[in-house]
Design goal:
The structure holds 4 protein chains of 4 kinds.
Chain A lengths: L1 H25 L3 H30 L4 H31 L19
Helix pairs in contact in A: 1-2, 2-3
Chain B lengths: L4 H24 L7 H19 L1 H7 L2 H24 L15 H33 L3
Helix pairs in contact in B: 1-2, 2-3, 2-5, 4-5
Chain D lengths: L3 H22 L3 H21 L3 H25 L12 H18 L11 H4 L2 H5 L10 H6 L9 H9 L1 H21 L4 H9 L1
The chains are: A mainly alpha, B mainly alpha, C mainly alpha, D mainly alpha.
């Protein structure tokens, strides 16, 4: 039973990790790309690492150190990923990057420095 | 960016953990992967992060420049010193077994720990010095 | 094909999409975002590979990545914002 | 392709090659720095996948962390766009192609990865692996006490710090010399230093 739960967590996490990246590739402008990066990625990594720790625990119940490291990694990512996304959006906003409102296509143009 | 409260809080939380992890890499280097070089780079990274988030002056207060210069030399001197102990005891240069003649294997572990500590000190201070000098001294 | 391998392949696919975004841009901020996402994917990939290959040493490297990734993002943003580092 | 590790290796190497080519191709130097960071991360995973843990640590800490910061530091002193030049150097292309073909030809003589009969695995590696690399032998009491076994458990650290102790000493000396050179080259000029003290 718990095995299926671990499988489900892993697959769901993989789905979120992939769809988050798909959003980063497909969304029209920078500020909309922040959403998949900030939310779906964070959820995906929590699910994957949770599933992995469950799997490790089921495989060998005395692998406490590995589970501890996995929990440490997930805590670390849970803190740093939103903070990085916040920092990127903040810098972009302060630099005067305007969100896309649908009137003009500001994607794909040479806005690069 | 350094005025962002979120980043300052997160960075302040993370800074001691990076140092602790660097210490783990340093000391665990003879059992698992890792060692002085990697730990030195991590220590330097931690202080560079501190400088990014809290400003150069705060980092200088935390870690004065003379201390960085001192540890840079101390690392190499520690390595050479371990070697010279072997010479003084009448053996080869860098012969670790003289550190504890009754337990040569323990002596070797001790010697490797000391030597890696020297490498870590030097690498950390050299990288910190490079970044500090190029960024701060030419204005 | 076991579940861990499928998840690892999904994560690699996600990393590839993030890499395309990092190459395409168009703005610098998009690139920084893509690099950050790529680093997160690498951490996940290392944890999964560690389980597949049954090596706990991978987890140490994953912790290192999670720390280094944050530092690299901060450094890049610092440069993008002010054209200087400290 | 039934071996999952092989499959993942191939995928990672393809990604690394894409990142490297993109880093060369782009004229935006800041983008190139970021792509080099991605390339380092990928190589580090690849090293870990080949069980070269210490190399992976170094690649991650130095390639993705310290090298990015040093390259950015260099960018603060230069512009962030590459100068437009001729797109194609024919002589460079020919040299690179010939070298690449020769190297590829050379790899056909190399033993397979992990071959137990390869010269690298039968010459001194057994000594390293059995932890007899140090200059000392463990006494019987050490063996009985059990901690650290005969020697330092991580063979890479044992080789670096004990078997090749001189080598590592001079590597440390080289790093130290680099630090001294940076301090000497980038010290403020005499007048500037006095002004700073006055201020």
């Amino acid at each position: 039973m718990l095995n299926y739960l671990a499988d489900g967590l892993l697959l769901l996490g993989g789905f979120f990790a992939f769809s988050g990246s798909l959003g980063i590739l497909r969304f029209p402008d920078f500020f909309s790309r922040l959403h998949p990066a900030g939310t779906s990625d964070t959820l995906g990594q929590l699910l994957i690492l949770g599933g992995l720790s469950l799997r490790v625990l089921l495989d060998s119940p005395d692998a406490g150190l590995s589970v501890g490291k996995l929990i440490a990694i997930s805590l670390l990512l849970f803190i740093t990923t939103p903070a990085s996304t916040h920092a990127i959006s903040r810098v972009a906003h302060l630099a005067g990057l305007k969100p896309w409102t649908g009137e003009a296509n500001n994607d794909g143009e040479a806005t690069d420095e | 960016m350094s005025e962002s409260v979120v980043l300052r809080t997160i960075g302040g939380m993370l800074f001691p953990y990076i140092l602790v992890y660097a210490f783990y890499v340093q000391m665990h280097g003879e059992i698992g992967p890792g060692g002085g070089f990697q730990a030195g780079v991590l220590v330097a990274s931690a202080f560079i992060l501190h400088a990014f988030l809290f400003g150069k002056a705060a980092t200088d207060r935390l870690l004065p420049r003379w201390l960085v210069d001192l540890t840079m030399c101390l690392g190499v001197l520690l390595y050479i010193g371990v070697g010279i102990v072997g010479l003084v005891q009448g053996s080869y240069f860098l012969d670790y077994s003289v550190l504890d003649p009754a337990h040569p294997a323990h002596a070797e572990a001790l010697g490797i720990t000391l030597v890696e500590a020297g490498v870590g000190l030097t690498v950390a201070s050299v990288i910190l010095t490079m970044v500090r000098k190029v960024n701060g001294e030419l204005e | 094909m076991n579940v861990e391998l499928i998840t690892a392949l999904l994560v690699i696919g996600g990393a590839f999409l993030a890499l395309i975004r990092a190459v395409k841009g168009p703005t610098t901020y998009d690139r920084v975002l893509a690099v950050n996402v790529f680093g997160t994917k690498t951490v996940l990939l290392l944890a999964l590979l560690g389980y597949i290959g049954d090596r706990t040493g991978f987890l140490d490297i994953a912790v290192l990545y999670a720390l280094i990734n944050f530092l690299a993002t901060i450094a890049l943003l610092r440069f993008v914002e002010t054209r200087r580092l400290t | 392709m039934s071996d999952p590790v092989l499959l993942i290796n191939v995928l990672l190497l393809v990604l690394a090659i894409v990142a490297a080519i993109a880093a060369m191709w782009t004229r935006n130097l800041l983008g190139a720095v970021m792509l080099m960071g991605i390339y380092s991360l990928l190589l580090a995973v690849e090293w870990a996948n080949l069980f070269a843990m210490d190399v992976s640590y170094t690649e991650a800490a130095v390639g993705a962390g310290a090298a990015t910061i040093l390259l950015l530091t260099a960018l603060t002193r230069t512009g962030s766009r590459e100068k437009e030049g001729p797109k194609l150097h024919w002589s460079a292309l020919i040299t690179a192609t010939v070298t690449g073909v020769v190297l590829l030809y050379g790899t056909s003589d190399l033993p397979r990865f992990g071959d137990p009969q390869a010269p690298a695995t039968i010459h001194v590696s057994p000594q390293y692996v059995t932890q007899n690399v140090g200059k000392v032998d463990a006494t019987e009491t050490d063996r009985l006490e059990g901690d650290f076994g005969d020697h330092v458990p991580n063979a890479v650290t044992a080789v670096l710090a004990s078997y090749r102790g001189y080598d590592t000493l001079f590597e440390t000396a080289v790093i130290f010399t680099a630090g001294i050179c940076v301090i000497l080259l980038l010290r403020p000029a005499a007048g500037q230093a006095r002004r700073r003290e006055d201020a």
